[in-house]
Amino acid sequence: MQRTRIKICGITREQDLRAAVAAGADALGFVFYPKSPRYIAPAQFAALAPAVPPFVSGVGLFVNATVDEVREAVNAGPVALLQFHGDETAEQCAAIAAVVKRPFARAFRVKPDTSAGDLLESEAQYRAASAWFSGLLLDTWVDAYGGAGKVFDWSLIPKELAPRVVLSGGLSVQNVTSAVMRVRPFAVDISSGVEESKGIKDARKIAAFVDAVRAADASPDMSESHHEGST
């Protein structure tokens, strides 16, 4: 039985952080993008930092941030991984990661016409650009930054890439078991799907989401080809 890693993103309150940890989350996402409803300022993050336990990774989400903005966030608390969601080039991601000395993941927003080759080419490009690159996070394309709460066609993900990616985009308690059984990603990432309202998490939904992922981990792969993940 493999264990799919789980990231709960958009943490803004200590009780939500503790609920995610108690449910068994491997990573906690903090959004350092001022235009997001889940934005957390570095000073707020510093206040939450003591509640982040050992071996649970803090992930900082950035959109077109400057080196100084990323440095301020990293210095405020335990940011183990950077997650770039804007228009950053591979070179820009590499440069920021090198300055703050943190590995990074790159969000790839999947469009309807994205091909398996596009995903493999992107991964190769970022891997060549930086030793700090840790992998792609696959989200759904929308004309905005950050999560859209919508799924994309999971069958676009090539089987050789799936074990290395973070699957995001429209995941929920209802569809994540199917998503994990079909794709077998390294990790899943959820934000709006476990919320009461924007930026406010629901502890019961978090626990149910983790349970749904574990159910997939304990199940055999789906034998049929994986199609649109809206089940």
Strand and helix layout:
Elements (H helix, E strand, L loop, with lengths): L4 E4 L5 H10 L3 E5 L10 H7 L8 E6 L4 H10 L4 E4 L5 H11 L3 E7 L5 H14 L3 E8 L25 E2 L8 H8 L3 E4 L4 E3 L2 E2 L1 H15 L14
Parallel strand pairs: 1-2, 1-8, 2-3, 3-4, 4-5, 5-6, 6-7, 7-8
Antiparallel strand pairs: 9-10
What keywords describe this structure?
231 residues; alpha/beta; TIM Barrel; two-stranded antiparallel ribbon; 10 strands; globular; disordered C terminus
- Count of distinct strands: 10
Could you name the CATH class?
Alpha Beta
Radius of gyration: 16 Å
CATH topology: TIM Barrel
Mean pLDDT: 93
- In terms of DSSP E residues, the strand content is 15-25%
CATH superfamily: Aldolase class I
Low-pLDDT regions: 223-231
Tell me the number of helical segments per DSSP (H or I, 4 or more residues long): 7
What is the number of domains?
Answer: 1
Polypeptide structure, described:
- There is one protein chain.
- The chain has helices spanning about 15-25, 40-50, 65-75, 90-100, 115-130, 175-185, 205-215, and strands spanning about 5-10, 25-30, 55-60, 80-85, 105-110, 135-140, 165, 185-190, 195, 200.
- It has about 230 residues and is an alpha/beta fold.
- It has one domain (about 5-215): TIM Barrel (Alpha-Beta Barrel), CATH 3.20.20.70.
- The radius of gyration is 16 Å and the shape is globular.
